Automatic annotation (TrEMBL):
Chain residues that bind NAD(+): 179-186, 202, 271
Catalytic activity, as annotated: N(6)-[(R)-dihydrolipoyl]-L-lysyl-[protein] + NAD(+) = N(6)-[(R)-lipoyl]-L-lysyl-[protein] + NADH + H(+)
PROSITE patterns according to UniProt: PYRIDINE_REDOX_1
InterPro entries reported in the protein's UniProt record: Class-I_Pyr_Nuc-Dis_Oxidored (IPR050151), FAD/NAD-bd_sf (IPR036188), FAD/NAD-binding_dom (IPR023753), FAD/NAD-linked_Rdtase_dimer_sf (IPR016156), Lipoamide_DH (IPR006258), Pyr_nuc-diS_OxRdtase (IPR001100), Pyr_nucl-diS_OxRdtase_dimer (IPR004099), Pyr_OxRdtase_I_AS (IPR012999)
An MF annotation (GO) of this entry: dihydrolipoyl dehydrogenase (NADH) activity
Domain Pyridine nucleotide-disulphide oxidoreductase dimerisation: start-end pairs: 346-455
Protein name: Dihydrolipoyl dehydrogenase
Plastid in keyword set: no
Keyword list, A-Z: Disulfide bond, FAD, Flavoprotein, NAD, Nucleotide-binding, Oxidoreductase, Redox-active center
Protein family per UniProt: Belongs to the class-I pyridine nucleotide-disulfide oxidoreductase family.
Disulfide bonding pattern of the chain: 42-47
Superkingdom as given in the UniProt entry: Bacteria
Length: 466
């Protein structure tokens, strides 16, 4: 029987990063993955393929809507959905192959099969061959699966999750998206750009409800301009399919009125649930919470001392980079180091266009906590860079402590803010004040100048260009 210092179950961004860091720190490491490709949800059916389709559909939209204003005449522009989806798949294939390469480079033994606990130091692997390995420590990184509402039957044809939405055989005529969160809005925008009518039905009274209220408002405004329809404060009560037609029944929570939508496709994007099926957690007595998430302490250790858990399968934001940080943290703890994650500094991003990005506390959270703060906001339309590209929607908002001027939150909507948010993370990591950012030189012309201007606005209201 092969024996390891660490076995990692699941090869998503949490699992493969944990495995690499363990190997870097000299531990003999095994990685177990039930699918034939590595990379988990993120690389196979999540972050990477969704961004590939967002990029392709964005190019198409630019060609039909925006080239002309730049003086580019292209004639009759068409898209080929099959080709678009094939390209997405090739991006995924290259990326997952890259993880295979990294496993080899770091001398990590990869097992394909379903891992389950035999006891606290032995893992059964049910694959082409059934075998058992021994591991001093195990890291559970089994991720998550799309969740649904109890009365919805996901048939994967007309009533679909994000996984199917990444490979539809045709552009829907009318796509109803249940859930106005990140995944629903990103995929809704893909099909809107390709010509579908899109209606987003959201239970809360705003989209992206976990982000700053100003971001929700701005993104809603832009989406409405793009002719996406919204039914906010609507609780879906039934989803029924009749042939190629799906009826979605919902109740307007504010008015108490029942409404109906007809669609040819319904994307159920109401969140994801921790995935522990088949792991046999009971065999070792690992505790889960009421939502099925593996319970861990601040060292991400389960109630069984040599078994840890990371990523989507535990509490916290379901984000690839959060899972990665946790993978690194556990590896370093196993090596006797004392790493730390500041969860307040894990950025959140929506890759629609304009993009939306956030780090730190929202204005709502600061109000609720009774923190005295100042706010500085700068609109993208006031930037030369934005006018040059034509991307004038959005803003940067910086929230800083009223007394100390320490930056407490950075919230953005606009072109390339998914990349820009790194400046907010860096500033907050080093506990910068808004004045610190305001005094840093930002290259001109860049979208990043909005960060400097928002910081100037937060410190004595002295932005230059507005
Ligand atoms: P996962 O990536 O889910 O990986 C878990 C792996 O474990 C899977 O490969 C699974 O097959 C394997 N596994 C499960 N059980 C077993 C078992 N018993 N034995 C062996 N293997 C097992 N996040 C971002 O940060 N940015 C984005 O842009 C983004 N976009 C997304 C878009 C979509 C459409 C979706 C669905 C998600 C997106 N996410 C994004 C979320 C991101 O994909 C997850 O947060 C991330 O994948 C979590 O990583 P993980 O390692 O915890 O688990």
């Amino acid at each position: 029987m092969s024996s390891y210092d660490v076995a990692v179950i699941g090869s998503g961004p949490g699992g493969y990063v944990a495995a690499i860091r363990c190997a870097q720190l000299g531990m003999k490491t095994a990685l177990i993955e039930k699918y034939s490709t590595l990379g988990g949800t993120c690389l196979n059916v999540g972050c990477i393929p969704s961004k590939a389709l967002l990029d392709s559909s964005h190019h198409y939209e630019d060609a039909i809507k925006h080239f002309e204003e730049h003086g580019i005449e292209v004639g009759d522009v068409k898209f080929n959905l099959e080709k678009m989806i094939a390209r997405k798949q090739s991006v995924v294939d290259v990326t997952t192959k890259g993880i295979e390469f990294l496993m080899g480079k770091n001398e990590i033994d990869v097992y394909q099969g379903v891992g389950s606990f035999k006891d606290a130091t032995h893992i059964d692997i049910a694959g082409e061959k059934n075998l058992t390995i021994e591991a001093k420590n195990t890291i559970i990184a089994t991720g998550s699966k799309p969740s649904t509402l109890p009365f919805i039957n996901i048939d994967k044809e007309r009533i679909i999750t994000s996984t199917e939405a990444l490979k539809l055989p045709e552009v829907p005529k009318h796509l109803v998206v249940i859930g106005g969160g990140v995944i629903g809005l990103e995929l809704g925008q893909v099909y809107k750009r390709l010509g579908a009518e899109v209606t987003v039905v959201e239970y809360m009274d705003r989209i992206i409800p976990t982000m700053d209220g100003a971001q929700s408002k701005e993104l809603l405004k832009v989406f409405k301009k793009q002719k996406v329809k919204f039914a906010l404060s609507h609780g879906v009560t039934a989803v029924e399919r009749d042939g190629d037609e799906v009826t979605i029944k919902a109740t307007n929570n504010k008015k108490g009125v029942d409404v109906e939508f007809k669609a040819d496709y319904v994307l159920v994007a109401v969140g994801r649930r921790a995935y522990t099926d088949g792991l046999k957690l009971d065999a070792v007595g690992i505790k889960t919470d009421e939502r099925g998430k593996v319970e861990v302490n601040e060292h991400l250790q389960t109630n069984v001392s040599n078994i840890y858990a990371i990523g989507d399968v535990i509490k916290g934001a379901m984000l690839a980079h959060k899972a990665e940080e946790e993978g690194t943290l556990v590896a370093e703890i196993l090596a006797g180091q004392k790493p730390h994650i500041d969860y307040n500094l894990i950025p959140g991003v929506v890759y629609t266009w304009p993009e939306v990005a956030s780090v730190g506390k929202t204005e709502e959270q600061l109000k609720e906590a009774g923190v005295a703060y100042k706010s500085g906001q700068f609109p993208m339309r006031a930037l030369g860079r934005s006018r040059a590209s034509g991307d004038t929607d959005g803003f940067v908002k910086i929230l800083a402590d009223k007394e100390t001027d320490e930056v407490l939150g950075v919230h953005m909507v606009g072109a390339r803010v998914a990349d820009l948010i790194a400046e907010g993370v860096t500033a907050m990591e080093f506990r910068a004040s808004a004045e610190d950012i305001a005094r840093m030189s930002h290259a001109h012309p860049t979208y990043a100048e909005a960060v400097k201007e928002a910081a100037l606005a937060a410190t004595e209201d002295r932005p230059i260009h507005i």
